[in-house]
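Hi R.,

As promised, here are both runs. First protein below:
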Amino acid sequence: MNRADLIEYIAGEMETSKAEADRFLSAFLDAIYSNVRKEGVKIAGLGSFSAAKRKARLGRNPQTGEEIKIPAKWVPVFKAGASLKEAAKKR
């Protein structure tokens, strides 16, 4: 399912226009983007979105075998909730 399919599904479930569903989805994603690094976002039944700092490490260029330094960086983390895990088992 891509973004357009999701918008169409939301519009059908909410019995509203696709434009309204798109605004809803955009607001939902903006809330996650703006809060993921601060306190994280926890949605009961779905899961939690947070950010974690990945340590700097040494890597290797697969073409040349040369060692390279990979800098530390922040990465998004999603942990699925129990309801989502259960729904995945059923499919």
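And here is the second one, sequence first, then its structure tokens:
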Amino acid sequence: MRRSVLTLLALAGATAVPVSSAVAQSGPSASGAAKAAIAKKRTKCDRNYSGRCLKPNVSDYDCAGGSGNGPYYVKGPVRIVGNDHYRLDADGDGVACE
């Protein structure tokens, strides 16, 4: 004897919710959680650079494989979107460690 999924859910005490309602309810909270995760990651990265996550508030970064002495190194390319305070963009074209 086969029972439908809705019958089994009713027997288990579950309430059926229309799909459109379920999607509407989960949409904002799901995107809100994703936005919170992105915001949390951004606070751990220097906002002046894009393409790689450089730690904010460290003494110095240099391009990996270059002549710099660190203590932190980054592989490029890294886009400069603010102040290039680590002086990674030697030729000033807006892309560092290329």
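A quick note on the second one: The two ends are 67 Å apart (CA to CA). Let me know what you think.

Best,
J.
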